[in-house]
């Protein structure tokens, strides 16, 4: 009797749901976990189809019948929908029993949530790679258009005012288009960042002057800051852009007014929190929080919130890359962004950035502005895009530089050797077909120690460009490059400024 009591007690206390049904699928036994999983009251003696109308149309029911017929174990991962329309995920193990069938149910909601987070992250990263690739190609075309437009403007006399005005408008349009490519790069975590050690309190204060007119008078803006806030290493201009993007989202969520709150705090993230967000590591972080009292979002909206051009707005309000680029900037900065929202309860964006040691400082580079853009140095230009390559050559040759071009690593190396290493400057894209600009530079430098290099990039950070080079060995140019910036950079590098 004692053994029987211990067995019954053990089964009753199991986390797995245990239920036994007769051959006619009438409930014979359920333990506490099974009653909890099924949200049932007293069902002993009740038929399965009477307790759950419609279950006969499910895969679960079909497998129950299969077990009764074959006598073999069947396993199913199944989402159960309850009478109140809520849902839960379970693993079901259906096996034959002397009195009919035995069904074991295991709650897998936590596992499914982690899988969902992982799959969502994978989807965002895949779209991010696509966005980065599109931005890279678009920047090449914009760069060629910008240089040719500037060269055309330079050749038009001051008397031809209408024609000059048309070309100037073209240049402004091209420059505005770079905003879209920067957002695509930010979303894809491939935008170049100018990292500095800063205090998030200062960033909030600096951005307030832009946020208040952006959201309008009907929205109250509150700032709650922690006085002794530790510092973080981020690109200040990019984080300010994140704040503006989130403020714009909050404004659209509060058409009748409300409260927008910016908050900072020192926080410690432990292992239990990191289990829900695998990309985070335990440690000290600075939290930057942006919250609103607006309309809030559904679970469906939350699952897509950082996808580019996804919107829950009306067609008139449109959609953009604001939240997608915010997600990309925060992640590229080594941080993490979490959104919480419910319909009617507003939305909160929590951003976490790793704390930096007080000893970490940044010494700004000093350099005098070079007025002269003329030159006669020999330049080896390596660029795979034919339009951008031709535009670079046109801009450089116009002011006296001697330029020869190559499309990839192999042709550049062959040309370098053919010209007996007479080049003074290597101007190369960071990414080359089947190789990199830094690999090419290392090869050519072994043959000419004083060769100077400029990497052109739109798409990766400095560490990828440098590939082990010291910061003093190379200069970075961000695409798309204006003629003036190209010529000034070439002159600075040639003169060691």
Account of the protein in words:
With 497 residues, the protein is α/β, with parallel strands linked by helices. 43% of the residues lie in helices and 23% in strands. It has 16 helices and 19 strands. The strands form five sheets. A five-stranded antiparallel sheet has the order 2-1-5-4-3, with helices on both faces. A five-stranded mixed sheet has the order 7-9-10-12-11. α13 packs parallel to α14. The radius of gyration is 31 Å and the shape is elongated. 32% of the residues are buried. The N terminus is likely disordered.
Span from first to last CA?
93 Å
What radius of gyration results from the CA coordinates? 31 Å
The parts where pLDDT drops under 50 for at least 5 residues are 1-5, 314-319, 358-372
Portion of residues in beta strands equals 15-25%
Give the number of DSSP strands: 19
The description of the largest β-sheet is:
5 strands, antiparallel
Largest sheet: spatial strand order: 2-1-5-4-3
Mean pLDDT: 82
Q: Which oligomerization state do the chains in this entry correspond to?
A: single chain
Helix content: 40-55%
Q: Could you say which overall geometry the principal axes of the C-alpha atoms support?
A: elongated
The helix-and-strand class reads alpha/beta
Please tally the helical runs, counting DSSP H or I stretches of 4 or more residues: 16
């Amino acid at each position: 009797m004692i053994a029987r009591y211990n067995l019954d007690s053990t089964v009753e206390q199991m986390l797995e749901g245990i239920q036994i049904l007769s051959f006619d699928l009438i409930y014979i036994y359920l333990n506490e976990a099974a009653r909890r999983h099924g949200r049932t009251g007293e069902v002993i003696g009740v038929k399965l189809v009477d307790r759950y109308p419609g279950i006969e149309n499910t895969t679960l029911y079909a497998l129950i019948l299969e077990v009764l017929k074959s006598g073999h174990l069947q396993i199913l991962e199944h989402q159960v929908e309850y009478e109140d329309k809520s849902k839960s995920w379970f693993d079901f193990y259906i096996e034959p029993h002397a009195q009919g069938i035995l069904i074991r149910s295991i709650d897998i909601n936590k596992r499914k949530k982690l899988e969902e987070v992982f799959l969502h992250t994978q989807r965002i990263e895949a779209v991010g790679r696509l966005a980065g690739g599109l931005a890279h190609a678009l920047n090449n075309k914009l760069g060629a258009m910008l240089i040719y437009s500037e060269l055309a403007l330079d050749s038009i006399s001051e008397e031809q005012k209408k024609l000059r005005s048309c070309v100037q408008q073209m240049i402004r349009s091209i420059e505005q288009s770079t905003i879209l490519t920067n957002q695509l790069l930010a979303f894809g975590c491939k935008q170049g960042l100018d990292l500095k050690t800063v205090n998030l309190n200062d960033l909030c204060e600096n951005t307030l002057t832009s946020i208040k007119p952006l959201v309008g008078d009907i929205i109250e803006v509150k700032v709650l800051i922690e006085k002794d806030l530790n510092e973080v290493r981020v690109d200040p201009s990019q984080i300010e852009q994140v704040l503006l993007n989130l403020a714009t989202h909050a404004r659209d969520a509060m058409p009748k007014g409300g409260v927008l709150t910016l908050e900072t705090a020192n926080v410690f993230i432990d292992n239990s929190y990191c289990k829900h967000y695998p990309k985070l590591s335990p440690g000290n972080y600075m939290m930057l929080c942006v919250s609103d009292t607006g309309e809030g979002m559904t679970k469906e909206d939350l699952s897509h919130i950082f996808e580019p051009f996804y919107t829950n707005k009306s067609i008139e309000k449109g959609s953009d890359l604001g939240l997608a680029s915010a997600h990309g900037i925060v992640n590229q900065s080594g941080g993490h962004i979490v959104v919480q929202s419910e319909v009617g309860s507003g939305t909160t964006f929590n951003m976490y950035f790793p704390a930096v040691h007080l000893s970490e400082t940044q010494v700004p580079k000093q350099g005098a502005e070079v007025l002269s853009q003329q030159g006669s140095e020999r330049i080896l230009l390596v660029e795979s895009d034919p339009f951008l390559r031709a535009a670079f050559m046109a801009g450089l040759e116009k002011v006296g530089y001697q330029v020869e071009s190559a499309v990839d690593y192999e042709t550049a190396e062959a040309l370098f050797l053919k010209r007996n290493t007479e080049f003074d400057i290597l101007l190369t894209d960071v990414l080359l077909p089947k190789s990199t600009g830094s690999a090419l530079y290392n090869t050519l430098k072994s043959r000419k120690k004083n060769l100077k290099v400029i990497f052109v990039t739109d798409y990766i950070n400095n560490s990828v460009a440098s590939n082990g080079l010291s910061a003093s060995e190379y200069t970075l140019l961000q695409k798309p490059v204006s003629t003036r910036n190209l010529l000034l950079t070439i002159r600075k590098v040639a003169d060691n400024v």
